[in-house]
Amino acid sequence: MIGAIAGDIIGSVYERRPVKTKDFPLFHDRCRFTDDTVLTVAVAQAVLTGRPYRECLKTVGGRHPRAGYGGAFARWLRAEDPQPYNSWGNGSAMRVSPVGFAFSSEDEVLRQARRSAEVSHNHPEGVKGARAAALAVFLARKGTGKEGIRARIAGDFGYDLSRTVNDVRPGYSFDVSCQGTVPEAMIAFLDSQSYEDAIRNAVSLGGDSDTLACVAGGIAEAFYGAVPEDIRREARKRLTPDLLEIVDLFYMTHMQGHEADGRREP
């Protein structure tokens, strides 16, 4: 999960300032966690406690009202009785990585990903993006190779994963939709040689860089094993105590031993 969080933090300064290159400082002075991190941690809390996703998103999100939520989700967060608003935005996919790490079967991962999405992003594309992202984390965690992940996600969800980062980068621009974010984030991972390379690929595409790197980072952590210690340390330094508490409990409960798993070759 820290892989998704670090991706969000690293990408945060490039969201409106696309760099279109892999040569950039990983941690800029203005790097910060955004709504991607807050809501990822909220999903982790729901998984840990068994409380409804809606309740945890509202509680944890409400503690961080200036995290950079989109307008519709900000209204959802403030509502006394928030309801789904038919969103196809990429918010459902950027927060779902804990589901891919926590559950033990594909069916349960897909079921829980749907549940986590539908409380707000109940448009078919919003649900599909969350399910695809969670399944990619699960498959990577279970040892599926990159070509196997590519084939499953493309076959099950209809995303075009035949492109490369170099194919996507020139014409890609800011896009907050699931259908315009999730495939590109997966390509950033599939074209990578390491966790850090996946993040650099994602940010270099331009556009919604924090979310691209958040989605790619979650899958890359599951595939490569531990996030490099220097990146992990810098990401943790930027989290508040309440978020760190949930992150640490999630690792203790659902990811013990993950960091010791083989760091696989690309």
Task: Set out the fold topology.
Layout: H1 2-11, H2 35-49, H3 53-62, H4 71-78, H5 91-94, H6 97-102, H7 106-118, H8 124-141, H9 146-157, H10 165-168, H11 182-190, H12 195-204, H13 209-224, H14 229-237, H15 241-254
Helix pairs in contact: 1-12, 1-13, 1-14, 2-3, 2-15, 7-8, 8-9, 8-13, 11-12, 11-13, 12-13
Description:
The chain has helices at residues 2-11, 35-49, 53-62, 71-78, 91-94, 97-102, 106-118, 124-141, 146-157, 165-168, 182-190, 195-204, 209-224, 229-237, 241-254. The chain has one domain (2-252): ADP-ribosylglycohydrolase fold (Orthogonal Bundle). It is globular and about 45 Å long. Helix 1 packs across helix 14 (229-237), helix 2 (35-49) crosses helix 3 (53-62) and helix 12 (195-204) runs antiparallel to helix 13. It is mainly alpha-helical. Helix content is 59%, strand content 0%.
